[in-house]
Amino acid sequence: MKVNYKHRDDSKVRAKKHLGQHFLKDISIAERIVGGLSGHDGYKQVLEIGPGMGVLTQFLLKEPAYSTFVIEIDTESVAYLKAHYPELTPRILEGDFLKFDTKTVFDAPFAIIGNFPYNISSQIFFRALQIRDQIPEIVCMLQKEVAQRIASPPGNKDYGILSVLLQAFYDIDYLVSVPPGAFDPPPKVQSGVIRLRRNKVQSLACSEKLFFTVVKTAFNQRRKTLRNALKPIGEFPEHPLLTRRAEQLSVAEFVELTRMAEQVIAP
Most buried residue, 42, 62, 200, 219, by CB count within 10 Å? Predict the structure, then answer.
């Protein structure tokens, strides 16, 4: 059955700059974002980060395949959601996702969805990586430049730290671009929607902590060859990988580089 949705009255909640709030008002884009959830690995629960006035939430609540939870730090938005979606009230989590202990609410895998605040989107992904075994799928909107970077393959100038770290554990698709006019207030940048689906990698064949360090160090001086970029870690033996630049290496090659680093820093 086709349901007709109306725009919410955006005047109900004041967009707060310090929270990076830009409320999506394009209903067709909202429906498409929610439609990006594939049910990968059969999860039964979805957590929406920063629902605001519920433009995504209204579609999520119509999905019978899973139960929708939301987490919101803005008290004004929480009050709006309770007033307009009373059936959601028991599943409204008031607080900061970055500080939220997901195991206090979820005892099974759950998906994440949301129009991420652009000023903390990277932090959200780093937090998601920490609890990745709980999260089989993420569908989100963020700054287009960041979305493209995350989905970019090796050898592309957009390929960077988040690309490698997230692609190590997720298969990533870029879904759609979204213009500033789809928001109120409109951001000064273009936006993009991506989907991340957990791959089969349970653990890396190297120290994960050192892997993160090697990737970040390599990209900190991305114009240099890896031999020069990785000098803060130590002196590496001769190897063809070290003649290349960070953006040219695949995840598997970064794992190989990390195994070399383990030997370099071993006592």
Answer: 219
Statement to judge: residues 68 and 153 lie in one domain: yes
Q: Does some domain include residue 2?
A: no
- Detail the residues annotated as belonging to a binding site for S-adenosyl-L-methionine: 22, 24, 50, 72, 96, 115
Q: Which residues are annotated as a binding site?
A: 22, 24, 50, 72, 96, 115
* CA-to-CA dists, residue 152 to 126, 158, 227, 255, angstroms: 17, 6, 24, 18
Task: Count Cβ atoms below 10 Å from residue 245 Cβ, excluding itself.
Answer: 17
Q: Are 176 and 216 members of one domain?
A: no
Listed residue (229, 167, 247) closest to 204, CA to CA: 167
**Domain boundaries, position 225:** 208-265
> Same domain, yes or no, for 81 and 136?
yes
Other C-beta atoms lying within 10 Å of the C-beta of residue 139: 25
Average pLDDT for residues 179-208, to the nearest whole number? 95
Q: pTM of the full predicted structure?
A: 0.91
The whole-number average pLDDT for the span 116-130 is 94
